[in-house]
Write a structure and sequence with these properties.
The chain has 330 residues and is of the alpha/beta class. It has a single domain, classed as NADP-dependent oxidoreductase domain (TIM Barrel). The strands form two sheets. It has an eight-stranded parallel β-barrel with strand order 3-4-5-6-7-8-9-10, surrounded by four helices. The chain has a two-stranded antiparallel sheet with strand order 1-2. Bound molecules: NADP nicotinamide-adenine-dinucleotide phosphate (NAP). This is Aldo/keto reductase.
C-alpha cells in the first residue's frame, strides 16, 4: 500500500481509505450484517489500509463503535478520521462532540478530525479555533474539512489555522470539484480525500439502468427530481449518466480491468488527490477494491477517461453538492 503525508500532520494516511458509512446499514444502505462489516474492516487493515473514515453522523455513533470493535486492538497502527457535524460548530460543542467521538471510538485521540459540512451560521474562525485547541490538548492530531467550497477555503486560509485535507464527492461521473475547488485546494496545499469514489456502486457497473438504482442511492443530481427521496429540483441526466457508465465499462473491458478499479485508479492519478475513501460491505468487496493498487494508467488512458466523462461533467456543472440544487458546498 502506498502512503501519503498530509500537511500539518505528523502521520501518513494510506492511499486507499476505508469508508465506514455503509457498514452500519440503515439510511441509504438498508440491511447490513454485522459480521460482514467487521470482516470488511479487518480485511482492509490486513491488506495495508491503515486509514478509516467515519463520523458521528453515521448511525449516530454506530460507525465509530463498530470501528472500535473491529480494530480497537490495533489502535496504534490505524489512522482514524472522524467528523463533527455542522450543528455542533459552536466552539464548546466542537469540544463536546469530540469527547463523545472519543468515547464512541474507545480511544483518547482522533488522528484527523473533520468539519463535516460548512455552517454559514457560525463564524468558521471560531470553529477552527476549537479544533486547534483540541489539537493543542492532544485530543486530535490534525484537523480537516469536508464539503468546503471556495469561500470557506478562503476563510480557512485567511484565518491562519492550518487544515490538513478537504473531503469532497469526486469520481468519474461527478467531477464538479474540478471547476474551481480542486484548483484552489492544489494551490493552497489542501489535499482532497474523495468520497463516494465509485459513486455508491454505480461505477462498478452493478446497475444497468436508472430504474435499477434503489431510491435512496438515486437521490443524487444524476437522477430526476421525481425520484421519491430526491431533495433537489433538477431534471437530472439519467440517459447521459448511463451512456457514460456504458462507455467507462467498455474501456475497462478493453483494458482488462474492473470498472471499479479503473475508477479508483483514475482518482489516484489526479493532482491534488491524497486518497479515495471507498466503502465496502464485506471482505470480498474490499479485496476487489484493493486490486486498484496494481492498476497503472497511462496518460492516454487518463485522457480518454477525461474525454468520455466530459459531457456529463459539463451537464452536472460546478455545483459540488451531490444531492441539492442550491449548493451547500460554500
Ligand atoms: N463527507 C461526506 O459528506 C461524505 C459523504 C458520503 C460518504 N462519505 C465517506 O466516503 C465513504 C465512501 O463513500 P460512499 O460509501 O458514499 O460510496 P462509495 O465508496 O462510492 O460506494 C460504496 C458502496 O459501493 C458498493 N461496493 C463497494 N465495493 C464494491 C465492489 N468491489 N463491487 C461492487 N460493489 C461495491 C457497496 O454497496 P452495495 O454492495 O450495497 O452496492 C459499498 O457500500 C463513506 O463510507 C464515508 O466514509 C463522506
Amino acid at each position: 500500500m502506498e502512503n501519503y503525508k498530509l500537511p500539518h500532520a505528523d502521520f501518513e494516511i494510506s492511499r486507499l481509505i476505508f469508508g465506514c458509512w455503509a457498514v452500519v446499514g440503515g439510511f441509504n444502505w438498508g440491511h447490513q450484517d454485522k459480521k460482514d462489516s467487521l470482516d470488511a474492516m479487518r480485511e482492509a487493515f490486513d491488506n495495508g489500509i491503515s486509514t478509516f473514515d467515519t463520523a458521528e453522523a453515521y448511525g449516530n455513533g454506530a460507525s465509530e463503535n463498530l470501528l472500535a470493535e473491529a480494530l480497537g486492538d490495533k489502535r496504534q497502527d490505524i489512522i482514524i478520521a472522524s467528523k463533527v457535524g455542522p450543528q455542533d460548530f459552536l466552539p464548546e460543542n466542537v469540544i463536546k462532540a469530540c469527547e463523545k467521538g472519543l468515547k464512541n471510538l474507545k480511544t483518547d485521540y482522533i488522528d484527523l478530525y473533520q468539519l463535516h459540512w460548512p455552517n454559514p451560521e457560525i463564524p468558521l474562525v471560531d470553529t477552527l479555533g476549537a479544533l486547534q485547541k483540541l489539537k493543542d490538548d492532544g485530543k486530535i492530531r490534525a484537523y480537516g474539512v469536508s464539503n468546503f467550497g471556495n469561500q470557506s477555503l478562503d476563510t480557512c486560509k485567511d484565518s491562519g489555522f492550518t487544515i490538513s485535507s478537504n473531503q469532497m464527492a469526486y469520481n468519474l461521473i461527478f467531477r464538479a470539484i474540478e471547476f474551481s475547488i480542486l484548483p484552489q485546494c492544489v494551490s493552497d496545499n489542501v489535499p482532497i480525500l474523495c468520497y463516494s469514489p465509485i459513486m455508491q456502486g454505480l461505477l462498478t457497473g452493478k446497475f444497468a439502468s436508472a430504474a435499477e438504482v434503489p431510491d435512496d442511492r438515486a437521490r443524487t443530481r444524476h437522477f430526476t427530481k421525481d425520484r421519491p427521496q430526491a431533495r433537489h429540483q433538477d431534471e437530472g441526466c439519467e440517459a447521459l449518466t448511463f451512456q457514460t457508465l456504458k462507455e467507462i465499462k467498455k474501456f475497462a473491458d478493453e483494458n482488462d480491468v474492473s470498472m471499479g478499479n479503473l475508477s479508483l485508479a483514475w482518482l489516484l492519478a489526479q493532482k491534488g488527490v491524497a486518497a479515495p475513501i471507498v466503502g465496502g460491505r464485506n471482505a470480498d468487496q474490499v479485496k476487489k477494491n484493493l486490486k486498484t493498487m496494481e492498476v497503472k494508467l497511462t496518460p492516454d488512458m487518463i485522457s480518454h477517461l477525461n474525454d468520455i466523462t466530459l459531457p456529463l461533467k459539463e451537464e452536472l456543472g460546478n455545483n459540488a453538492d451531490l444531492w441539492e440544487s442550491v449548493s451547500r458546498v460554500v
